[in-house]
Amino acid sequence: MFVGFITPDFFATEYIFDALFFTVSIALLGVTFGAFFGFFLALVFEFRIVRIFCAFFRSIHELFWALIFLQLFGLDPLTALCAISLPYACTFAKVYAEIFEQADTTPAKTVSKKADILSVFVYTKLSLVKKQLISYTRYRFECALRSSTILGFVGIPTLGFHLESAFSQGNYSQAGALLLLFYLLIISINVWLKAKLLPIYIAAAWFYLPAFGQVNWDNFTRFFGSDIWPSPLRYAADIDLNVINQTLHWYWSLLTGEVFEGIVNTLILTQLALVVTGIIALLVFPLTVKLFVGFTGRIMGQGILVVLRSTPEMILAFIFLLLLGPSMLPAVLALAIHNGGLIGFLLAELANTLKLRPDTPLQHNGINSGRVIKGHAISLYFYEVLPRIYSSFLAFIFYRWEVIMRETAILGVLGVTTLGFYIDSAFEEMRFDRAIFYIVITALLCIGIDSLSRHIRKKLNVKAA
Can you give the residue ranges of the ABC transmembrane type-1 domain (predicted)? Predict the structure, then answer.
């Protein structure tokens, strides 16, 4: 596998570049539609019904949405587009609303009372938070590239589909080429993703995708009208007390059986991954901090962090399953490496803004620049840098807690017995009533973890900027 990775074959299949363009197109259009609808949802996010709606729908992972839309549209680009756009719109709504709330209210007080609401919003609020909105949207696009990639694990022809095929067939040179292309794509985002070029990119993505198939409304009627209803209700001629009892018994048997086992495994795996994520983040963030390493070392460190945070957890888990066999360990490693790299990157960005005390021993490499003397680096890490960024570290960890829970669930598609395993099995067996019930349980579990995380962050008085 290692030899294959260092000898990438970019011409092993004629579909490599098609898969790359398809992945980017789905991600770009998914973020475009998600940001558009999320922006308007953010304007009414103060209403409780909107917050509940967004909390529930964003708690369901894109991969599970893809499994649902596959039953409606089949292997159509529309499946991938809806699977990304829907949860992303709800995520954008939440974050955009928080950004609007944090905007300075002073300018709005200086506007004439005769000014209309739209003008007041555009000139006194939107103009103030424009940079934050753009920055977060750019970040979500990077997330969408990973989401688009892993949709290949359910048959969508993105990079993930060809990666899974290459690994399964032992074509590691082809897998190495696909991964290298993906890393180059992530690294070069700041180069090619320019605001002025976005209309061109969006138009090109729309015309590049295969034509959307005609929607078969019979699938909607069948899926929502009968398939997702519990089997005791679906096959009952009339709804009476006996049918209701059978339905309750059906739910209870699932809750005490597969659901209970899935919840326990999901929680155990989530907590293990959360702890290892924190350890990895604390170990890797100094790799790109100018206080600890020189210019060459920081370049290498940035490359390592890009690989860690950019590789989708599904792909990492798939690789570790091939190497280590089926167990929880591959899933823990995959989740911890991906999230640890992301948090490490954020901590490094924060650490690079710190100003040291005047008495810190430095060796000067130039005018007004210097690096900590080697003998003092460990003391600097534990007694100067880490204490000052530790509250942010806790905020990032608890902020990613709910995300790790969502990602833990989807690893069940690879055979890890989390809730996702039973969801995937139910779809394969065409037991859609069970699949939807398991997805709802997963969403409620994520909402519970998110609420607990917010409560802990509030008690600790820490914020993830």
Answer: 263-453
Q: CA separation (Å) from 300 to 285, 297, 415? A: 12, 5, 34
Q: What is the largest CA-CA distance in the chain?
A: 85
Structure tokens at 415: 């055979």
- How far lies 272's CA from each of 330, 402, 410, in Å? 12, 14, 16
Average pLDDT value for the chain: 87
Rounded average pLDDT over 145-154: 91
* Among 209, 187, 211, 212, CA closest to 21: 209
Summarised one tens digit per residue, pLDDT across range 74-112 is: 888 899 999 999 999 999 999 999 888 888 777 777 777
What is the CATH T-level fold of the domain 228-465, as seen in this structure?
A: MetI-like fold (1.10.3720)
Q: What is the pLDDT of residue 44?
A: 92
| Two domains, one topology: 1-225 and 228-465 | yes
Beta-carbon contacts of 378 under 8 Å, excluding residues fewer than 6 positions away, are none
Domain spans of the chain?
1-225, 228-465
Per the rule left: phi > 0, alpha: psi between -120 and 50, beta: everything else, 155 is left
371-405 burial: b if 16+ Cβ within 10 Å, else e: bbeeeebeebbeebbbeebeebbbbbbbbbbbbbb
pLDDT beyond 80 at 210: no
Query: What CATH class does 1-225 carry?
Result: mainly alpha
422: three-class secondary structure by DSSP: helix
Q: Are strands 362-366 and 369-372 parallel, antiparallel or unpaired?
A: antiparallel
d(CA 55, CA 35): 16
Q: Would you tell me how many other CB atoms lie within 10 Å of the CB of residue 329? A: 15
CA-to-CA distance for 307 and 342, rounded, in angstroms?
10
Q: Which pLDDT score is estimated for 335?
A: 95
The residue written with tokens 């957890």 in the block is 313
pLDDT at res. 371 = 59
